[in-house]
Amino acid sequence: MNNVSIIKICNQFKTQGLCSEGMLHGSGNIHDTYVCKTKHRRYLLQKINQHVFPAPHKVMENISLVTSFLQKKWQKISPQSAQRRVLTIIPTNTGENFYQDPQHNCWRMYNFIENSVCYENISNVFQGKEVAKSFAIFQKMLLDFPVEKLHVVIPQFHNIAKRFAQLKDAVLADDHQRYSSVKDFVQKLLQYEDFCKKVNEFEQSLPLKVVHNDTKVNNVLFDRESHQAVCIVDLDLVMPGFSIYDFGDLARSATCHKECGKFVFRSDYFATLLEGYIEEAVHFLTPQEKKYLIYSCKTIACELAFRFLTDYLEGDKYFKINYPLHNLDRVKRQIQFIDSLDRQQQSLEDMFRKYI
């Protein structure tokens, strides 16, 4: 969209002064994001992807409930920094938490957290511990939130058996005649069926809690001066779920590195994340959560491999792609990562004995 159109949308919100500039921002896989500027401050504007989130009112209701809850807690802990610790939803001129334009696109606005930066990957031990600790604190602060108040915006989001079944359905349908070119990938992923069944079994013993569900490194904002983590962002998927997968998703995204042309599992980075997470989480994880945390990273990697390949077979409808085979490259990355993770299983077990 052009600058004039973005400015027009920005001015549908209760900003401090009229918006004079709107620039495309970031590289997210789901939403279109812009930074809007007024005379007084900057704001973050997003067009919600309604293919991924067909009920934006439920997404925004969840975010409103959770951010309000967290803001009250941070006001008690650190009143001077509370506005930097939690996203603030900017209401529309009519008091709603999102705006629907004449074309039925849905838009939302947040405060822009100044003097902050996010990283695509961790580059040192301090960053790794900060990221992991931040997500553990996020979970801890929401332990007493009434989880039943939240909408399930994507049912069975981390249900690996469901994702496996969706992949098999996409293979059988082959609506875009792509199966013949990805047979090797399909055969490789079908080998994880027994692992999926094992995961489904142990999930029966895990409690439902409020979880983030998208715990990538770049969803944590760091202060530019202190270099400490200050705010968790991208709250679209906050809903009831299993806390171990917040750690698993973070570990999967932060420990996957390319070496000699292949993606590998970095056990040294994993140790850093586990130490940072357990420092806070050891006090609230149940015995069953501690027991099965070791499987969380592989579970998320398998699930993502299923989802990326399913999306490719269905015509690349869910994830944004930058080139025709982007989803297949994502599949290849996850497969290489899982293979590397499996080869280092003993190292993984040693780490869990040390920290848990």
Automatic annotation (TrEMBL):
It comes from the Bacteria. Residues 25-262 form the Aminoglycoside phosphotransferase domain. InterPro entries: Aminoglycoside_PTrfase, Kinase-like_dom_sf, Pseudomonas-type_ThrB. Signal peptide: none annotated. It holds the Pfam family APH. This is Mucin desulfatase. It comes from Uabimicrobium amorphum.
